[in-house]
Design brief:
The chain is mainly alpha-helical. It has two domains: 69 residues; 51 residues. Helix content is 82%, strand content 0%. It contains four helices and no strands. Helix 3 packs antiparallel against helix 4. The radius of gyration is 40 Å and the shape is rod-shaped. The chain starts with 20 loop residues before the first helix and ends with a helix.
Length: 139
C-alpha cells in the first residue's frame, strides 16, 4: 500500500474533492438529500402537536375497539339473562308477554317499554304467590 502525500491544503488525495465536475455534483446532491432527510426527521420529532395528535388517535382507536368488545359481551349476557328470566316466568306471564310483544310490533317501540313494565309487574305479582304456596306445602 502506498502512502498518500498531503497536498498543499493538508489533504490526502483520498480526501481531496473529485476532479470530475459531474462526480462533484453527484456528491453534493447526495449530501443535500441526506441533510434533507435529517432535517425532516428532526422536524418530526420537534412537532409536539402532531405527535400528541397521533397518540390521541392511537388511544381513541384502542378505546373504541375495547368498547365494541364490551358491548358484544354485554349483549350476549343480556340475551342469556333474558332467556333465563323467560324460562323462570310462569306460563300466564309468558302468554301476556307474547301478546304485549305482538301489540308492540304493531304499534311501535313506544309501546314496547310499556309492555316490558307490564310483564315485569305481572311476573313480580305471580312470583310471591308461588313462594307462599311452596311454603304452605312444606309446612
Amino acid at each position: 500500500m502506498t502512502a498518500h502525500k498531503p497536498t498543499s491544503a493538508g489533504l490526502t488525495p483520498a480526501d481531496a474533492p473529485p476532479d470530475d465536475i459531474e462526480a462533484l455534483a453527484e456528491e453534493i446532491e447526495q449530501t443535500r438529500e441526506s441533510l434533507g432527510e435529517t432535517v425532516e426527521a428532526l422536524a418530526a420529532k420537534a412537532d409536539i402537536k402532531a405527535r400528541v395528535q397521533d397518540k390521541v388517535t392511537d388511544v381513541r382507536q384502542t378505546v373504541l375497539a375495547s368498547a365494541g368488545q364490551v358491548r358484544q359481551q354485554m349483549t350476549g349476557r343480556a340475551a342469556q339473562a333474558g332467556s333465563a328470566a323467560w324460562a323462570a316466568a310462569p306460563e300466564p306471564v309468558r302468554r301476556a308477554a307474547k301478546r304485549a310483544a305482538g301489540t308492540a310490533r304493531q304499534r311501535g317501540t313506544g309501546l314496547a317499554v310499556t309492555a316490558g313494565a307490564v310483564i315485569l309487574a305481572g311476573w313480580l305479582t305471580h312470583r310471591p304467590a308461588s313462594r307462599q304456596r311452596r311454603r304452605s306445602d312444606q309446612g
